[in-house]
Amino acid sequence: MTCNWRGVFPAATTHFKPDFSHDLPAMQTHLDKMIKAGVHGMVVLGSVGENTTHEYAEKLTVLEAAKEAIAGRVPMLSGVAESTTANACRYARDCERLGLDGLMVLPAMIYKSDPRETMAHFRAVARASGLPIMVYNNPPAYSVDITPHMFVELMDEPTLVCIKESSDNPRRITDIVNLTGDRYVIFSGVDDLVMESVLLGSVGWVSGLVNAFPDENRALWDLMMAGQWEQALKLYRWYTPLLHLDTHVKLVQYIKLASQETGMCSEFTRPPRLPLEGEERARILGIIRKAIAERPNALR
Questions:
Q1: Which of 80, 139, 172, 238 is positioned for an S-S bond with 105, CB 3.0–4.6 A?
Q2: Torsion (CA) 255, 257, 259, 263 in degrees, nearest 10
Q3: Active site residues
Q4: Which residues lie across from 76 on neighbouring strands?
Q5: What would the mean pLDDT of 125-148 be, rounded to a whole number?
Q6: Bridge partner list, 188
Q7: Could you tell me if residue 263 is left (phi over 0), alpha (psi between -120 and 50 degrees) or otherwise beta?
Q8: Residue 118 CA to chain centroid, in angstroms?
């Protein structure tokens, strides 16, 4: 499938049983529900998918199960989050062999590379396969920043086609467009900045809370694409307390708890992520349950 770089691409959760083994049938059911709700693509084994808690062979098992469930209905991407450039290139080739439609590539994990090293990593992965790549820029989470001027230098890599801009600074979108024109497709990667990002030129959204609220997510996207900004803003204001959950270090636990409350997913995560407890759990549940109780009538 040719990847259409537009629309909502869930950063899909990976489902686990209480013993931390995979629950692949539950994951497949969840992916199917999101596709039927109208998402436009799927990112498996991203940060929300707990990529780095997996052994290499486990990742390929998850990809095979996800590919079976998606069944070509929407483009399927995998996160690439390896600790070495060599393993990232190996993984890119394996994704191509498995028939995926694209990659979402992160900087090398653990080591905090400088700009020269960062660009060398992305160039190597870009040349490792023929798959189109979404470059995931998230300096708050990974302490590696791909600046707009670095994207200018990377313009000569034809497989680098899309940027997931998660720097928490919407100004970056304008800077990238001013420097590179229409060379890259821009996606928003911060849930509670999606409306601001769309107004500045983002045409896609890699979302976390869509795992729990796919219908509301799709409705918000459709309203923005239709230019119905007053209605979109009303829905966005209802959704924003939930979207804030995407910007915390415990975003995976928060998103999975929300997904459990809406019947989409269990909250089980792999250590070092532990279940929420005490005041924190009560506070997050309060946010989720208030939003559910106040869901827009048309979407209940």
A1: 80
A2: 180
A3: 136, 164
A4: 42
A5: 96
A6: 165, 205
A7: left
A8: 20
CATH topology classification for 7-299: TIM Barrel (3.20.20)
Cβ neighbours of residue 71 closer than 8 Å, sequence gap 6 or more:
none
User: Residue 285, by phi and psi: left (phi above 0), alpha (psi -120 to 50) or beta?
Assistant: alpha
Please answer whether residues 176 and 154 qualify as being in contact, where contact means their C-beta atoms are separated by less than 8 angstroms.
no
- Which residue in this structure is represented by tokens 């660009």? 119
Over residues 24-70, the pLDDT tens digits come to 999 999 999 999 999 999 999 999 999 999 999 999 999 999 999 99
What's the average model confidence in pLDDT over 228-244? 97
Joined tokens for residue 187? 């996606």
Burial class (CB in 10 A: 0-12, 13-18, 19+), 202: buried
Provide the pLDDT for residue 3. 73
Structure token pair of residue 67: 């590919």
The pLDDT of residue 298 is above 80: no
Tell me 157's DSSP state: -
